[in-house]
Amino acid sequence: MPEKSISRFTRIPTALDDLVLIERRRLGDERGFFSRFFCTEELPDFGIGRIAQINHTMTQAKGAIRGMHFQKPPHDEAKFVSCLVGAVFDVAVDLRPQSPTYLRWHGEILSAENARSMMIPQGFAHGFQTLTESCELIYLHDKPYAPGAEGGVNALDPKIAIAWPLPVAQMSERDRGFPML
Ligand SMILES: Cc1cn([C@H]2C[C@H](O)[C@@H](COP(=O)(O)OP(=O)(O)O[C@H]3O[C@@H](C)C(=O)[C@@H](O)[C@H]3O)O2)c(=O)[nH]c1=O
């Protein structure tokens, strides 16, 4: 079969407009598996046509929360978020005032086993809670890091009411200080 006819990705819509879950297909054999991680040919309309940065994080504690982060315009970015070690509850909040799903959140489990990634579009805040120890995430960003443009929504904001699956074990001081809506 010609290589191009193999579809490597399954798109799974979510309850939020433009927020898509991607399942990376694994081609397995007795050695393990081969998997394409990202593809501008197969995902051309996908927000990340150009990869400006790839970032890698490790979070030690189970129950730790990072987020909810975004970059303000003109540095607003799309990111393709994947978990390569462990498992996380990954969450996006729609911050686009014109959107029918404005201020709604959506969460999905991303794990090393399920090979799922979240495509976070521009205009969303992103964060996650670790479900295991020593979780490693990889982010593909379509814009460079712009420290002066960092924005945040408080992950514990009762107006958004994200149903974090575990008690909060750890948050950075900066994340705890983000304002409530
Ligand atoms: C986000 C970022 C941080 N840094 C630096 C700033 C700081 O010294 C250190 C840790 O930064 P933070 O505490 O913001 O890292 P962290 O909380 O892991 O930030 C990340 O959170 C998740 C939820 C996201 O969605 C990511 O886009 C990113 O914002 O790394 C960079 O050099 N480049 C970057 O792109």
Automatic annotation (TrEMBL):
What's any GO biological process attached to this entry? dTDP-rhamnose biosynthetic process
Q: So, what pathway does this thing act in?
A: Carbohydrate biosynthesis; dTDP-L-rhamnose biosynthesis
* Keyword flag Translocase: no
Which InterPro entries would you find in this protein's record? RmlC-like, RmlC-like_jellyroll, RmlC_Cupin_sf
Domain of life here? Answer: Bacteria
Pfam families the UniProt entry points to: dTDP_sugar_isom (PF00908)
> Which residue positions hold the site described Participates in a stacking interaction with the thymidine ring of dTDP-4-oxo-6-deoxyglucose?
145
Gene Ontology cellular component terms for the protein in this record: cytosol
Q: Give a yes or no for keyword Signal in this entry.
A: no
- Top-rank EC class of the record's enzyme: isomerase
Reactions catalysed: dTDP-4-dehydro-6-deoxy-alpha-D-glucose = dTDP-4-dehydro-beta-L-rhamnose
The catalytic residues are: 69 (proton acceptor), 139 (proton donor)
For molecular function, the Gene Ontology terms on record are:
dTDP-4-dehydrorhamnose 3,5-epimerase activity
Sum up the protein's function in the record's words. Answer: Catalyzes the epimerization of the C3' and C5'positions of dTDP-6-deoxy-D-xylo-4-hexulose, forming dTDP-6-deoxy-L-lyxo-4-hexulose.
Give the multimer and partner information: Homodimer.
Q: Could you say which protein family the record assigns here?
A: Belongs to the dTDP-4-dehydrorhamnose 3,5-epimerase family.
* Protein name according to UniProt: dTDP-4-dehydrorhamnose 3,5-epimerase
State the organism named in the record.
Rhizobium mesoamericanum STM3625
